[in-house]
Amino acid sequence: MWYRSASFILDKQQEENDAEGKPESRLLSTASPSSSMADTLQNPNPQISAYYQTRAAHHGVVTTDWLAQAQAAVGRDPDDGVSEISIISTDSGKQLSVIDEFNNWRKQPDLAEAVAAIRALAWVIRSSEATTMMELEIELKKASDSLKSWDTTSISLTAGCDLFMRYVTRTSALEYEDFNSAKSRLLERAEKFGEISYKARKIIAMLSQDFIFDGCTILVHGFSRVVLEVLKTASQSRKLFRVLCTEGRPDRTGLRLSNELAKLDVPVKLLIDSAVAYSMDEVDMIFVGADGVVESGGIINMMGTYQIALVAKSMNKPVYVAAESYKFARLYPLDQKDMVPALRPIDFGVPIPSKVEVETSARDYTPPQYLTLLFTDLGVLTPSVVSDELIQLYL
Amino acid sequence: MLTMALYISNQAGLRYLAGDISGGNARCIAMLEAFQESIKDYSTPPEKALIRDLTAKINCYVSFLIECRPLSISMGNAIRFLKTRIVKLPLTLSESEAKATLLSDIDRFINEKIILADKVIVRHAVTKIRDGDVLLTYGSSSAVEMICLHAHDIGKQFRVVVVDSRPKLEGRLLLHRLVRKGITCTYTHINAVSYIMHEVNRVFLGASSVLSNGTVYSRVGTACVAMVAHQFHVPVLICCEAYKFYERVQLDSICSNELGDPDAISKVPGRKEINYLDDWANRENLQLLNLIYDATPSDYVSMIITDYGMIPPTSVPVIVREYRKEHLWI
Amino acid sequence: MPDTHALVNEFVIKLKKRKVEGSKATAKLTAELLRSVISQQRIPHTNQAVALIDAIKSVGEQLIAANPVERDGDKVTAAKVQGFMRTGGVGLWEEATGGREKEREDGDSFGELAVGNIVRRVLHIIREEDLSLTTAAIGGLSLSAVSDDEDDVEQDGHPVLSAAAVAAAARSTLRPPSLQTLLEDLPHSAAAPPTSSSGGDSDGKSKSADKSSRSRKLKHNVIEAVNELIQDIATCHEQIAEQAVEHIHQNEVILTLGSSITVIEFLCAAKEKKRSFRVFVAEGAPRYQGHVLAKELVARGLQTTVITDSAVFAMISRVNMVIVGAHAVMANGGIIAPVGLNMVALAAQRHAVPFVVLAGIHKLCPLYPHNPEVLLNELKSPSELLDFGEFSDCLDFGSGTGYPLLHVVNPAFDYVPPKLVSLFITDTGGHNASYMYRLIADYYSADDFVVQRRPS
């Protein structure tokens, strides 16, 4: 199993897409500075969800033949790519650079998506030339809107932007006499947000310790940094438990997670995704992270979570979700298809005839009746509390 | 009493008595407008305080209305709002100023809580209608009608199944209005709801009120429709303005309900041959029960669309709490 | 026989015009008709059973074709077409259904599936009688064969099967395939050769005497059995009503929808045994059979309350038991019942109220429901729901896009899945929904599930 730094993988994937015959995307990004209308800026490859690509890059695993392809395409120094982008950014308008700033932050594997968004917005504040709160707010709103439209599939991005905008609105309403002090306060909070996020993971890990008892078997799906933190803390406090890990195709998150857990000396067993119901008897609880927590109290997470929750419900096993509070979003899907589609290309390893369709959706929605508890930095919550928090925030 | 009868007989009450006005919003607006008229013509008798006297007058009027027909929950909330406003009138105001304040308060209530709220509900609900959808609705709800018409106006392609039931047969009026606008409709009666449900994507229902435990209190038959929809895994969306939320809880439909006219059951309009129960009053063993409302349990409801946004049924007490803070209700 | 043909045609016309009321009456008439067909049928000496079966099958085909619910293939189109609104009394609808006149009668024809059931019962009876006779004959013949021809047993080249083996083989062709017979050597002609081979073995004279007596015997037995069937149908209500006392107790509240004679008899039987209880009757729009039931019950002195169908969920929390009749019981235990009963069954399940179905054995149908909502359903006239005059312009096919803006749907039946039914009460006692397959195996043979003559 190979790991590569996220930026390298991302560039190589971009190149692969180009090699597959999508030269327009490259042209689009070079052409956009000359015609940079903030509203019409488009993700170069709208069919593929950038959010899930990044996640795959962070948590997935590179296969050997993929790596061979990447090496065959060598000749393009990854650093060129970065400098190219920065050259563009100095020429272009603010909008483009917000997105680039965001992408830069996003590439760091340990940084939460919302934190990257807020850091990008902090950058906007820093480089803004506004003189009143109103102006600053409008600039921020534009930047936040462009970020949101850049990747409509990322819920934490949307939620993070909304949360920060709410905070800005509330601060501006407080009528600081000095504009600069207000601005510096906003900046300080934005920087601090990274810490908040990191602390959030610690809090969640502490809260869930009681639920992990000695000798229990935990089933984990997907690679969530929060869940990893939970398991890390549990193993550090000398608890004896074992983990069943689903493979998590097509990103193979399970392989990555099992690696991490093996480093912690936690007994790990890998399952293929179809073996979940078979092994459900010996499982005591299920831990998943969440890409987003929606208003009904349900979660949006990697494809396969809904399936596992259904099996767990029918066998009376508790499903615990570990999610930070800034992932609460004002969405309300009624069924699986009621969300913005987020597609991921799936490589089956063998050529598929063109007549055959492939389901490429990267995520599913788990309704609240299948979830037992949510561990958040606001405490241990039942799914119905989520809406309460959202209403109080947005009312 | 006499003066109120005068107002009412001119406007709301008589039509009200005759059952012409039906539907929570319509009744509430009619009642508030009648109150506005009476406040306009009100003058404090000498040696009496405005607040106390006006409150007593309002109580009088309310009991008159109750005699015509028991109050709906939305009307009850509106009356409570009005009484709170009266009580909170500063004593320093002159009579004309007080009256003006009250009139503008009522106007604001009608505007914000009913008319604008409906607009917000429509805006939210329309996002849940996709092209090619088949919507089902029961009876006649003003909110649902507005949603369908608006969605049709902005060009969404969908069709509507209107489910109707005896004895009120309110669905026919809705059907009329939808078909006139050019929306493709299917019409059926409530017994056939299991037959038609497999084609349906979304169920939109109106409500007379939503209780604190998430139970939806609305026209009798709504619970049946929601139950069958739940069975077929079709999402059920309740469209209800926030002023109709009520702090009581109720477990089933029998605890408190309204009874309608039993003759409506024994007589079937348009079918003279169904006359088996014509002399029901003479038979001591026979009773006819005409319920008006029923209570839909909250687990059948997927989402409630209010002017505060789309909320799950578990968040109704949250809204009631926030609402109270905002508007200083009792 | 011109006589039989005339009888059959008359009955077919009655069915089409829905002049027959109630499934019990239909079943009785069908059985009587088939009895007269049998008695007037002249059958050859050999393969009599086959001849009888053919005759019944041909009549059965005609009868089943006369009812809209059982006909294959036309069903889906018929169902779609029936959704159209009649224009001015005649018109579109009739053209589409091939000129079948659908008069709205007060009496409903509940007999459609019952006709097919009775035909299959009679076929099963014929096969059974034939089998028992053959077994008896073989038993007698093989004895004689053994006594006469013990020296040259193999002279014909046919192996002489022992009576028991032949009987067993024949019985197993009668029963549906089962694990017991999976590995047994089962020549399909096992049933036929005994008649022919035994004919070849023994003397000609005694054989012919045997044959004619046997043929008379077969007919006689079959007619006797059909008489028994008719008797059973006639008394099924009493048999079911006898069990009422076990299920209805003092001060109970019972809910029912629509009207069914079985239910009336059931409730009145309990009343006669001095149980006092209340009945809630849902009116069963748009046919309002509930009103009829309520009137009947009040006349017999029961406390009745009439409610609208929409109030079922509201009232069911106060109800102890739901008792309904069914139009037909399918092979998986599901029922075809008057429209609205699926709603009632779901409400009953939600409130843990037992849902009891009363059904005579003649309602048992060996078909499995696939897509029962469409295929086993009937759409009735939309004028029962809407007044035509108000909406005439919306229903016009000629306007605009060629599709009418308004569809009116008025199904007559509902399918209730077996998991919602707590108990079946039939004239043979109380059964679980999962036991229906056994009753079907007892009363029908597998060959008859599709009543169509094999092309000769």
Automatic annotation (TrEMBL), chain A:
<keyword id="KW-0648">Protein biosynthesis</keyword>
<dbReference type="InterPro" id="IPR000649">
    <property type="entry name" value="IF-2B-related"/>
</dbReference>
<comment type="subunit">
    <text>Component of the translation initiation factor 2B (eIF2B) complex which is a heterodecamer of two sets of five different subunits: alpha, beta, gamma, delta and epsilon. Subunits alpha, beta and delta comprise a regulatory subcomplex and subunits epsilon and gamma comprise a catalytic subcomplex. Within the complex, the hexameric regulatory complex resides at the center, with the two heterodimeric catalytic subcomplexes bound on opposite sides.</text>
</comment>
<feature type="compositionally biased region" description="Low complexity">
    <location>
        <begin position="26"/>
        <end position="36"/>
    </location>
</feature>
<dbReference type="GO" id="GO:0005829">
    <property type="term" value="C:cytosol"/>
</dbReference>
<keyword id="KW-0963">Cytoplasm</keyword>
<feature type="compositionally biased region" description="Basic and acidic residues">
    <location>
        <begin position="13"/>
        <end position="25"/>
    </location>
</feature>
<keyword id="KW-0396">Initiation factor</keyword>
<dbReference type="InterPro" id="IPR037171">
    <property type="entry name" value="NagB/RpiA_transferase-like"/>
</dbReference>
<protein>
    <recommendedName>
        <fullName>Translation initiation factor eIF2B subunit alpha</fullName>
    </recommendedName>
</protein>
<dbReference type="InterPro" id="IPR051501">
    <property type="entry name" value="eIF2B_alpha/beta/delta"/>
</dbReference>
<dbReference type="GO" id="GO:0003743">
    <property type="term" value="F:translation initiation factor activity"/>
</dbReference>
<dbReference type="InterPro" id="IPR042529">
    <property type="entry name" value="IF_2B-like_C"/>
</dbReference>
<comment type="similarity">
    <text>Belongs to the eIF-2B alpha/beta/delta subunits family.</text>
</comment>
<dbReference type="Pfam" id="PF01008">
    <property type="entry name" value="IF-2B"/>
</dbReference>
TrEMBL record, chain B:
<dbReference type="Pfam" id="PF01008">
    <property type="entry name" value="IF-2B"/>
</dbReference>
<keyword id="KW-0963">Cytoplasm</keyword>
<dbReference type="InterPro" id="IPR037171">
    <property type="entry name" value="NagB/RpiA_transferase-like"/>
</dbReference>
<comment type="similarity">
    <text>Belongs to the eIF-2B alpha/beta/delta subunits family.</text>
</comment>
<dbReference type="InterPro" id="IPR042529">
    <property type="entry name" value="IF_2B-like_C"/>
</dbReference>
<protein>
    <recommendedName>
        <fullName>Translation initiation factor eIF2B subunit delta</fullName>
    </recommendedName>
</protein>
<dbReference type="GO" id="GO:0005829">
    <property type="term" value="C:cytosol"/>
</dbReference>
<dbReference type="GO" id="GO:0003743">
    <property type="term" value="F:translation initiation factor activity"/>
</dbReference>
<keyword id="KW-0396">Initiation factor</keyword>
<comment type="subunit">
    <text>Component of the translation initiation factor 2B (eIF2B) complex which is a heterodecamer of two sets of five different subunits: alpha, beta, gamma, delta and epsilon. Subunits alpha, beta and delta comprise a regulatory subcomplex and subunits epsilon and gamma comprise a catalytic subcomplex. Within the complex, the hexameric regulatory complex resides at the center, with the two heterodimeric catalytic subcomplexes bound on opposite sides.</text>
</comment>
<keyword id="KW-0648">Protein biosynthesis</keyword>
<dbReference type="InterPro" id="IPR000649">
    <property type="entry name" value="IF-2B-related"/>
</dbReference>
TrEMBL record, chain C:
<dbReference type="GO" id="GO:0005829">
    <property type="term" value="C:cytosol"/>
</dbReference>
<feature type="compositionally biased region" description="Low complexity">
    <location>
        <begin position="189"/>
        <end position="200"/>
    </location>
</feature>
<feature type="compositionally biased region" description="Basic and acidic residues">
    <location>
        <begin position="202"/>
        <end position="213"/>
    </location>
</feature>
<keyword id="KW-0396">Initiation factor</keyword>
<feature type="region of interest" description="Disordered">
    <location>
        <begin position="188"/>
        <end position="218"/>
    </location>
</feature>
<dbReference type="InterPro" id="IPR000649">
    <property type="entry name" value="IF-2B-related"/>
</dbReference>
<comment type="similarity">
    <text>Belongs to the eIF-2B alpha/beta/delta subunits family.</text>
</comment>
<dbReference type="GO" id="GO:0003743">
    <property type="term" value="F:translation initiation factor activity"/>
</dbReference>
<keyword id="KW-0648">Protein biosynthesis</keyword>
<dbReference type="InterPro" id="IPR051855">
    <property type="entry name" value="eIF2B_beta_subunit"/>
</dbReference>
<keyword id="KW-0963">Cytoplasm</keyword>
<dbReference type="Pfam" id="PF01008">
    <property type="entry name" value="IF-2B"/>
</dbReference>
<dbReference type="InterPro" id="IPR042529">
    <property type="entry name" value="IF_2B-like_C"/>
</dbReference>
<dbReference type="InterPro" id="IPR037171">
    <property type="entry name" value="NagB/RpiA_transferase-like"/>
</dbReference>
<protein>
    <recommendedName>
        <fullName>Translation initiation factor eIF2B subunit beta</fullName>
    </recommendedName>
</protein>
